[in-house]
Specification:
alpha/beta, 315 residues, TIM Barrel, 12% strand, single chain, 8 strands
Length: 315
């Protein structure tokens, strides 16, 4: 029988693999290994193209859920590739408009060049924010590892000068997040709160699913909901959601509050929240650069590795 410490060790191993760019390159360059990995990824992504995401967006809208779309990718270290990826995201926004859909646009700043230079990340982030505004929607900046937190927040602040509707994601696990929350609440953009999926040391982060992490998450939700600040409560944790509903009650029905969940991790809880009259959103991911995203999803619950093996058998 697997012990909790063994599950934690497995999760940390998966998070380490998620950040291992050399391992990613090795697997994706091998036809057989790449094919196996792609089969596992299908559960967590809409598919390789924007059309795949738009089809899923329409299905989710029919169930009453708002949508957010991400062309998944991170850690681009070539300026030309970053520009190409930016064009892909802008093209997806145009397709969204042509299809008559509505969704917020999420992306990692490192996907569009921030690790090449902060100037490039800002330039491409502004282009995406403008395309989103032209389409009648807005962007949500995703969280990255703690070593990039200052970079992400700095670029987000610069984008939000011209595009105050731009949102940002904060991780409850990080010790620094309490101060970061007060910083981002000086702007009007929505705040997405997540537990935090990255491999982090005890020096910078609470242990995942620990009492201090849950306490930090609930405190963030209380602060944002109580202040009337737009908030996306992003979690699949039914117990955590139950705690928030017990504590905050009808305040969670306010227009500035949403519950957000990821595609591929089940819809029962999200559908139940929508049935209860709460605002809900499903986060849709597409594209070929899913490595970090998918491994982090499996790492959140290492038991999903068994599901991955079942997916291989059925594919």
């Amino acid at each position: 029988m697997t012990t909790p410490s063994e599950l934690l060790a497995a999760a940390d191993t998966l998070r380490g693999w998620a950040l291992d760019e050399r391992l990613k390159q090795t697997v994706m360059a091998h036809p057989v290994l790449a094919g196996i990995a792609a089969k596992i990824a299908r559960r967590y992504t809409a598919g390789p193209r924007a059309d795949d995401a738009l089809r899923l967006l329409e299905l989710n809208a029919a169930r009453g859920h708002r949508g957010s779309i991400e062309c998944v990718g991170e850690s681009v270290r070539d300026a030309d590739v970053a520009s190409e990826e930016t064009e892909e995201i802008i093209g997806m926004i145009r397709q969204l408009v042509a299809a008559g859909g509505t969704a917020t646009i999420s992306f990692d700043l490192s996907h569009v060049g921030s690790v090449v230079s902060s100037e490039l990340g800002l330039e491409n982030g502004l282009r995406i924010a403008q395309a989103a505004r032209d389409a009648g929607t807005s962007v949500m900046i995703s969280a990255e590892g703690s070593d990039r937190a200052d970079l992400v927040l700095g670029i987000w602040e610069q984008i939000s000068y011209d595009f105050p509707e731009t949102g940002v994601t904060l991780q409850a696990r990080l010790h620094r997040t309490g101060a970061d929350l007060e910083r981002v609440m000086r702007r009007s953009g929505p705040v997405r709160i997540v537990k935090g999926a990255f491999l982090e040391s005890a020096a910078v982060a609470h242990a995942r699913d620990s009492a201090p992490m849950y306490g930090a998450y609930r405190a963030m939700a209380r602060r944002l909901v109580g202040a009337g600040h737009r908030v996306n409560i992003a979690t699949h944790d039914a117990a955590l959601i139950g705690d928030l509903r017990a504590e905050l009650g009808g305040d969670l029905r306010a227009e500035h509050v949403e519950f957000e969940m990821l595609q591929g991790l089940g819809t029962t809880l999200l559908d139940a929240l929508r049935h209860d009259g709460l605002i809900t959103r499903e986060y849709i991911v597409y594209g070929p650069e899913w490595w970090l995203y998918v491994l982090n999803r499996i790492a959140e619950h290492p038991e999903r590795a068994i599901t991955a093996l079942a997916d291989l058998r059925q594919a």
